[in-house]
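Lab notebook, bench 4. Still working through the backlog of constructs that have no structural model yet. Next entry is a single chain of 411 residues. Request: give me the structure tokens for it.
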Amino acid sequence: MLLWENMKLALTAIRVNKMRSFLTMLGMIIGISSVIAIVSIGDTMRSMFAKEYEEIGLNRVRCYVMKFDGYYYYSENFTADQFNEIASVFSDNIEYISVNEGGTATGINGRKNYDIVCTGVRGGYEKVQKVDIIAGRMINDKDYEGKKNNIVLEEATAIELFGTADVVGKKMKLKYTRGGFGSGSVVDDFNIVGVYRNSQSVLMKLIGGTDNTRGLAYVPESVIFDINVQGAWIIDMFVSENAPATFQNTFTNYVARMTNAQPEDVKYSSAREAMGEADSILGTLSIAVGAIAAISLVVGGIGIMNIMLVSVTERTREIGIRKALGARTGDVLTQFLIESAVISLVGGIIGASLGAGIVIAGGTALGVDVVVKPSVMLMAFAFSALVGIFFGLYPARKAAKSDPITALRYE
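Model written out:
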């Protein structure tokens, strides 16, 4: 009951001095809103990166060989036979393997020309990597095994060349260079078997933007090997979740023997490891920046201490009357501690709501699913109350220890 009476006294004191109370809260509002916004932005970025890596495939691995000849590093290319050998030897542990690389060619439709980056894939690529096919189909095993000149165009590329995305069944020409520089240009007819939509995430747009100067397309990997007779320098594969823990070591040693390289020359990079590193960096950065923003809470706490000291001085006679009527030292201490805690807590509630609101509004504008953790909000409320108690302790003790006779004489 006494606690409730002290709460009412605290709220009454705040209402009586609305402007002063608001300005006192302002430090807490700014501090808490900054911390909530920064931590939420950090959590949102971590969530976006996690989703991006999930889209890529956490079990995705890229492997290449980089040798040092005593002067400089150079990559060791893989042949089509080596790819097939790796796929056969590790068939139990690899769900999908491909070069997943290609080169730039010129797409031709009548008088229209457009640069296209062609990516070589095998059948089943859409099972391990999301491909939004809007018409026709994706490259399949028959395309790969038969080395068929079939192509799947990106929607924007199809519109650029044909003026429409309804191009399945049509033919186009690809002009490319076979085998490197000085080998002359080759023009081949390709059948369009599918059209897909490239939905770039907000994160990738923020990081790299959108390149509107080149189109994208998928062709059979076997055709890429025919075009690029020098081979492919990277292995792109999806490792089975049931692969043994020793798979990486076994695989890199096998590739080293195959290419006459040292095991340390074989570079093995998994999406899961990359995501862990990115998440660790973002988490550390979020904590560091949040800690810097939290400095403003100290400033807000000092403001609370200052205004509570003023309040104690102004209410000296009131304190004397309360103590003369029987209020104990602990009662007066509790009254002023509650008042400072309430000021700080209300400021924390407003600040947390403001910080979360800013993040949510920004996410809505950008089309991003924001992450505002309830646990962070609760911690902010609790911390703001603790700041009020900590910085209100000295003024409250000063009020509690005042001599009632001296306080009654105060004008």
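Notes after review: The longest strand covers residues 185-197. Residues 180-184, 204-213 have pLDDT under 50 and may be disordered. Flag for follow-up if needed.
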